[in-house]
Amino acid sequence: MSESYDFLFKFLVIGSAGTGKSCLLHQFIENKFKAESSHTIGVEFGSKVVNVGGRSVKLQIWDTAGQERFRSVTRSYYRGAAGALLVYDITSRETYNALTNWLTDARTLASPNIIILLVGNKKDLEDDREVTFLEASRFAQENELMFLETSALSGENVEEAFLKCAKSILAKIETGELDPERIGSGIQYGDASFRRLNRQQQQQRRPECSC
User: What CDD domains does its record include (predicted)?
Assistant: First the structure.
């Protein structure tokens, strides 16, 4: 039996190599830590149906390689993404300093309206921290991003990060800021939505019928 959902959102997980992007995706999909993780070559993919504000949403997630040599390959996957997790490693100043470049790529190649959540990963390595919560929070504010610190190891805030981003997309659909029918929006109606719309249309037609 195929999955039933109201919406499908295309998501990206972007950021420098070694920030734990694949581990975040694995923790979200499988609810466990991926102990042996090598650098992603090109792009990896995962999907999960979640409940967002009473709606069933399928997240189609593309985990992109952070290494520079794969940049040209991964950039082609940005097109038509509705949301993205922009990941840095709280123990690596270098990955934090690279955020502006990743952010520019996402807003240029995906869409200026893409919903982006900044993720400070490896929260479990507090003793090795190089980037403060306050500093990253300020960066998020200046660039109109949502922000969370996560631990792919313990699972802390991992699901919350994906759900927070999805909630923001859903809210913009409901206010009309995002149109699922616009090509390249990164959003599609699922079969459950179509069934609901059809039911509503049938109910509206019934009173007109004088049998």
Answer: Rab4
In angstroms, the CA 102 to CA 21 distance is 14
Q: Are strands 7-15 and 43-52 parallel, antiparallel or unpaired?
A: unpaired
Q: Integer distance in angstroms from the first to the last C-alpha of the chain?
A: 38
DSSP β-ladder status, 55-64 and 83-89: unpaired
Output the six-digit token pair for 33.
Answer: 């830590």
HSE-CB for 167 with a 13 A CA cutoff: 12
Beta bridge partners of 48: 59
List pLDDT tens digits, range 41-70: 445 778 899 999 889 999 999 887 644 544
- 150, pLDDT greater than 70: yes
- Pick from 154, 168, 171, 192: nearest CA to 58: 192
Q: What residues form DSSP beta bridges with 11?
A: 61, 83
DSSP state of 40: P
List of E strands, the chain: 7-15, 43-52, 55-64, 83-89, 115-121, 146-149, 187-189
Rounded to 10 degrees, the C-alpha dihedral 49/182/185/50 comes to -10
Which of 43, 13, 6 has its CA nearest to residue 150?
13
Helices and strands: H and E segment counts in the chain: 7, 7
Give backbone dihedrals phi and psi of 76, rounded to 5 degrees, phi first: -65, -20
Amino acid at 92: S
Note whether 81 and 11 are within 8 A (CB): yes
